[in-house]
Amino acid sequence: MEELVFFINKVLVSGVVLGSVYALGAVGITLIFGILRFAHFAHGDMMTAGGFISLILAGAATTIGLQTGWPTGFIVLPLALPLAALLALGLDRAFYQPLRARGAKPVTLLIASIGVTLMLQGVIRLFFGAEGQNFFETEPKEIFRIPFPGAGRPITVSEPQMLLIGATVLAVFALHLFLTRSRLGKGMRAMADNAALAQVSGINTAQVIRATWIIAGGLAGLAGTMLALDVSLKPDMAFNIILPIFAAAIVGGLGHSYGAIAGGFLVGFAETIAVFNWTTVLRPFAGYLPFGWQFPADLSVVPSEYKLSVAFVILVVVLLFRPTGIFKGAST
Predict the structure, then answer these.
(1) In this predicted model, what pLDDT tens digit does every residue of 14-46 receive, in sequence order?
(2) Alpha-carbon dihedral 232, 267, 146, 173, rounded to 10 degrees
(3) Is 3.40.50 the CATH number for 2-321?
(4) Which of 277, 328, 214, 312 is nearest to 14 (CA)?
(5) CB-CB contact of 307 with 269 (8 Å)
(6) 195-249: pLDDT as tens digits
(7) Residue 245 in contact with residue 264, Cβ under 8 Å?
(8) Is 3 in contact with 278 (CB distance < 8 Å)?
(9) What is the reported pTM?
């Protein structure tokens, strides 16, 4: 039982948490690609910026003495997410919209997004420095220990992790209702399928583009804040995971929101399973090995420092055998 609880803590809980972050990030990337047809490499830094927006608001809330019993960084999300969405709209208006008006190709927009990435990182470092920030410097981080029958150790989940999982479920459900029930959501799906046909059909493409940036920016702010609540907030926090997030979007099918969610959890669980030391759960079966053999001390597929390589392996396999992804998204 001890080994099973260790597996739950290190693989199942960690996989759900990491998959939630990847899913929220991948949905934003796949929406932007589906509508605007370019890979937005600055999305990771939008997540980081969203985390810092929440940090500023949390500091202001603490200054005025706001105390609710919940993490302050989570409480300020109703204000932080609209600000993150406004930041996304501002980036589009300042950098991408002028390029689209001049008929720039997708590769030009991609290169511009790399420049936006460097700009956002520079601005964040200018105002906040390069050191890590912590949401829980003035308040405790609650840890839930759930007893497991027959085991001496409990299942351990932190409060930010539970909030992240809950927020992901609500965000996915709300996005599903928006895309399937609202007129604007149906317009977004139509434009993702065929932009030219959607335009001649009377769909307001400018409104769809604005809605895309608002949703992508809001989800980026949510993902960045919830990730920062679980770990420390650094200027390169989400930049370090942008490639696995892209892998999740491509694996699920670029332009397909539900595929991005599935791809996020697939990549998240693949990474946690790959770095898990399987010797810890196989140790009780060591006595059944022939010739007195023993399991090696470390039976992980890859060392933890190479965890990001797992996403690339999955990405290469998918591109070779199913380039459109699990849900048959765009292949170009």
Answers:
(1) 999 999 999 999 999 999 998 988 999 999 999
(2) 90
(3) no
(4) 277
(5) no
(6) 777 777 788 888 999 999 999 999 999 999 999 999 889 998 988 889 899 999 9
(7) yes
(8) no
(9) 0.92
